[in-house]
Amino acid sequence: MYDDLETYVLLVLSDSNLPTGSFVASAGLESYVKHGFSSPPISPESTIDFVRDSLASYAKSALPFVSDAHHSVEKFALEDDGNFSDVLRILIELDDLYQAMTLNHVARRASTAQGVALLTLYTKAFSRPTSTTSFPAVRTKHHEIQMAKLVDEFKFKIRREEVAGHLPICWGILTAALGLRRGIFLLSLYRLRS
Prior knowledge:
By secondary structure, the protein is mainly alpha-helical. It has helices at residues 2-13, 29-34, 44-78, 84-101, 105-126, 141-159, 167-177, 183-193. The chain is globular.
């Protein structure tokens, strides 16, 4: 049952109809074609190669950030006496490091637009009234309230420009707040490389 729910939520999150800013940039496809790495006319094979290589590269650079953000939020959610300021500090440090590592200004802009969109998606679509049942990892109303508070505070810091709000960190926050397992991302990466 849990695997079915988790799969369903991941499918919902991968839907291109969600307003997560997924069409913010070409992710380098235009430059790839312009610099002659794909012979005109663009073949389906060269496009697939570009997408596969791009996803593998992005996964290797972003997955550690997703994993660390997810772990921090998950740990906070499962502890009855979780320290709110500690988890927020860790998330801010991760986001600052990702900001420093993302040198391309277009990639930065796309990442932050998508990150904010994910947090907005959580607050508008995935956080539930306190009377409804939670996802498995978020067991009590207290945890549900703590997750909403954490997401709201991180969004507030983004609005105040105290933190950039990059996609990998926000994805880690979102998936942990929803109670999705961290191992699912490693499985996705393995499938991507196969």
